[in-house]
# Entry
Amino acid sequence: MEAFRAFLYVRSMLSTPDDSSPFPVVREIREPRFGALVHPEWTQAFAWLVQGMTTRDSGHDHPFDLGLFASRSEPESARRRWRALRESLGGDRVVHAHQVHGADVHVHHGEFAPARDPHLVDDCDGHVGDTPGLLLAVTTADCVPVFVVDPERRAVAALHAGWRGAASGVLERGIDAMVSSFSSRPEHLLVHLGPAICGACYEVGPEVFEALNQRTPAEPEPIDLRRVLARRAVGLGVREDSISVSAHCTKCTDSGLFSHRAGHGERQAGFIGVRR
# Structure
């Protein structure tokens, strides 16, 4: 509980209120060594945490594409970039999976042997773990990377939430995995909805609104998927002031991110882990 209170104090010192939203809006800052976008409050509050989102300009390769399954990506070149990412972050292993826009979440426990970068597990859209040196990663190009931190248990999660995954319950499954595997308490969790396509840019059909249990319009309209996920997190017991929403949009802000809606076939990675 002390770690949670300490974080809230840091937030009160660093945050700029957004009167239009109950959820704090956070503009991730660029980490100078590798060019990843990192959560400034989490960086300030938790020396044991590594977290962020790669950009087109991360590392030495340009563009810094981490897609292994996307049509425009070259897997062997991407694996070289995955290795560069892991080494730059000081991790022993980085885990990833073929993402299928579902709700399966993989729980990572205990020790592990070195493996090829990244270490791929069975198809899933989320990872939870608490092992020092283990980096959890999801790839996106408009979908929401959801980062979850339990500062008391030092457990973390990385979830991939497109609208199908959100509708299937990937957020709920991820938080349930933290509760069941690490005895996390939802009221002590911190949730950050990272760089993704924003509510102004993401126009979808009525079927998406219906699948997400939102008011269903007659015609296509924009939807703010991050706000939908934030409300779901509150419904799971996470405090409103423990949920933050990224100010970065993959499509309309100049953030150096890949966007499927903008015609990019490449992928960036959202990563989180416990430092060793």
In short: The first helix runs from residue 2 to 14. Residues 12-19 have pLDDT under 50 and may be disordered. The first strand starts at residue 25 and ends at 26. The domain at 2-274 is CATH 3.60.140.10 (CNF1/YfiH-like putative cysteine hydrolases).
